[in-house]
Task: structure prediction
Amino acid sequence: MAIQISSELLDGCVLALLSDEDYYGYALTQRLQTTVAVSESTLYPVLRRLKKNGWVTTYDQAFQGRNRRYYQLTAAGQQQLTVIQADWQSYYQAINQLLKGEATS
Amino acid sequence: MKNYLDKFAAYLIQLADGERDEVIEFYREYLLDAGIQDYDDCVAELGTPKQLARKILADYSIRFNENLTADQGKRQKSRAGVRAIWWVVLALLSTPITIPALIVILAVLFAMAAVVFAIGVALVATIAAVTMLAFSAITAGVGVFTQEIWVSIFYIGSGLAIIGVELLILPLVVWFIGVMIQGVSTVVQRLYHRFVKRNRAERGGRHHEENR
Result:
């Protein structure tokens, strides 16, 4: 995809995925990459920021003799997700109008 | 993989222990889940340990700086600004970018360095000159004290007045230097966002297509 995703939108995408189920780092990267062009190394800073803002929490689960760290959406994260969804809706509509040339008056 | 993570850890020495462990644990888990063992495969997936570390560190410094803007003192802000500039420059240099972009970046950095240097020299020279003028006025005043008492008092008085004005202006100069550092820091961060972020994403995108 030629269009570059902004960090707010990427936050929103991660929060949205986590609202369905809990993910661990690798699975989350893989899932995101089916839709958005993000590099393999990008996700850690994003998750760290989300955690620092209290939008996600983490818990560890044993897997084949090691730990997997799962990321889980918090109530604050759910709220943030609705904010981003609303922002995206208005942005999407405005851009769509502009691109279709309907904004000329 | 251990070799890769060890090298990566060595570059993260500036981070607090807890933070560093968390970053390394994240990428260890990532590589295990991806089933990547060889050093070269790690590099293909995440970039060299150096590139990865600089990306992480640049992200830290920038975020750190943004937070400071909100609630911290000026002095700390400039210091964080200087550190952000440093890490972002390193991150830029470790990234493969196109030659025209590199030329633009270097030109901007060079121009900023030149301007800052020129302003710095001008400030120091002005302050030195004014101080010298003040002191020579005082010296001259003391020198003629026995012969021309009024002339002497005039000289000493104007010398002291100049020093007084200088002390008044000094905080303004310090403030100005702080603003300048902040400005340069902001520009460098924009450069970072403009070139490094986009570049990584493009690489990610291409990589993704190869996977199909």
Summary: Chain A is about 55% helix and 15% strand. The radius of gyration of chain A is 16 Å. Chain A has one domain: 8-100. The first strand of chain A starts at residue 23 and ends at 24.
